[in-house]
Design brief:
357 residues, alpha/beta, Rossmann fold, seven-stranded mixed beta sheet, 12 helices, 31% helix, globular
């Protein structure tokens, strides 16, 4: 069934995408997970096909676009891993969900400015089917080939994966479905499910793609480490009794809301990550795990404060860096992002995960 939508009624979002979703519903419903997948990843009109979604003129800011210092800190971490591995002459950096390549650019700049040998050894692969940056030092690929030695870096990757949404009930978790109500998308009740460890009250999300994705990322390297930045909590915090409305959050023109059924294809939809599950996935793939700890702690441990102090001879640069650090380490904002490292065949754990003081 194909519905002709009155343009005056299409306030739900991108008209072509709204029509695509309604056609798939065929007069019925689809699970919220499928709705979120189409809203974000539909090949022609999904949100992640939208240009300019990140940045001051977009919908939200991420750490790599705040200031290159974030990438420099990640590069320093990679350098320590590479050095600890005996400085292999071939070393691959994989970045899934690389966006427009801001993180890659700052990481590679740091390599070239600090260690020419590492810069020559590195092959940087951005795994990003939705866009490609212009930096010639970066390879843009859809399907990467595993490497003997390297690291995998992801920033806010897992929290954008489609999730199943449930409401706890006396019969068990009831899955949330979505239908078209004539002028807008609406929630409706789906079937009852069985979920181990599910909360006994309120709304919650389950991310079925996170575990296998972490396993695949760990499988990209035979030796090295995987560094993950994402919003999330260990399971006991994620499913705490007081958290009764879930963690689903949307970003539209630098404002947040909790309604994923509007601005379809025009707003980001995220859900906090279960780090207990990510840890289990990494361990099942043969890794040892450090963290998670907060981004504020990690960046402090990696010496970001020294990057600020080193610019004191240029007051404009100094204040730019100081303001950027405040944003990157603000525990009410980006500073509360969690950071986890998984490592394989390394004699010592990667740096940055010692206790902060």
């Amino acid at each position: 069934m194909s519905l002709e939508l009155d343009p005056g009624l299409v306030t739900a979002g991108n008209p072509a995408l709204v029509r695509r979703i309604i056609d798939e519903m065929d007069g019925g419903t689809i699970p919220f997970e499928r709705f979120m997948e189409l809203a974000l990843y539909e090949p022609e009109n999904g949100y992640y096909r939208k240009p300019g979604r990140i940045g001051k003129s977009g919908d939200f800011l991420t750490s790599p676009v705040i200031h290159p210092m974030f990438g420099w800190s990640v590069a320093a971490w990679i350098h320590e891993v590479w050095t600890g591995m005996g400085m292999p002459s071939e070393f691959t950096v994989f970045e899934p969900g690389a966006g427009q390549g801001q993180l890659a650019e700052s990481v590679l700049d740091w390599f070239e400015g600090r260690d020419e040998e590492l810069a020559k050894a590195v092959r940087y692969q951005a795994i990003e089917p939705n866009s490609a940056g212009s930096d010639p030092r970066v390879e843009w690929v859809d399907e990467p080939q595993p490497a003997d030695a390297g690291v995998v870096i992801s920033n806010e990757l897992f929290d954008a994966l489609p999730v199943r949404v449930f409401d706890a009930s006396q019969r068990g978790p009831v899955e949330v479905h979505v239908r078209w109500g004539g002028e807008a998308f609406e929630e409706t009740r789906g079937p009852v499910a069985t979920i181990d460890g599910a909360p006994s009250q309120g709304r919650f999300e389950v991310n079925p793609k996170a575990f296998p994705l972490m396993q695949r990322l760990c499988g990209l390297i035979q030796q090295g480490a995987i560094l993950t930045f994402d919003y999330g909590y260990p399971q006991e915090e994620l499913y705490a009794p007081w958290r009764t409305t879930g963690t689903l959050l949307c970003f539209y023109r630098h404002t947040s809301n909790e309604d994923p059924l509007k601005h379809v294809g025009e707003q980001d939809i995220t859900s906090h990550v279960n780090f207990t599950e990510l840890t289990a996935a990494a361990e099942s793939a043969g890794c040892t795990v450090a963290g998670p700890l907060s981004q504020a702690e990690f960046l402090t441990n990696m010496g970001m404060g020294q990057l600020v102090e080193s610019a004191r001879n240029d007051m404009q640069k100094y204040f730019e860096r100081r303001n950027a650090v405040q944003q990157l380490t603000d525990t009410a904002g980006l500073g509360r992002v969690r950071v986890m490292a998984a490592f394989k065949q390394l004699e010592t754990a990667p740096p940055g995960f010692e206790e902060s003081h």
